[in-house]
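pinned: reference chain
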Amino acid sequence: QVQLVESGGGLVQPGGSLRLSCAASGRIFSIEGMGWYRQAPGKQRELVATITSAGGTTYVDSVKGRFTISRDNARNTMFLQMSSLKPEDTAVYYCNARITLATPTLTVNNYWGQGTQVTVSS
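pinned: its structure tokens
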């Protein structure tokens, strides 16, 4: 009923920038909290940044000052602007959203995107 589709990943040199997007589509009534997670090879998935429907944000310490999370509520889209990228930022990045469905019962579910690869290497 709902899909989250990430885009914008790729290969970038250290110090470079990338902008990830996450577009939600389907039977959406509203989207509450959204977030970006990442998972590097051999490591557990970690929370990178979150944003509330009102625009409040949080970041993991390792990306503070380098990454900026934002969202366009009218387009049901979330972004992650990543700057000053480091090799340790290399991972598959996933978007996550808590969504109220446009159904008679207004069911609330947690959804994940399929992931987009970010590789930081010279």
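why pinned: The mean pLDDT is 97. Residues 13 and 122 are 5 Å apart (CA to CA).
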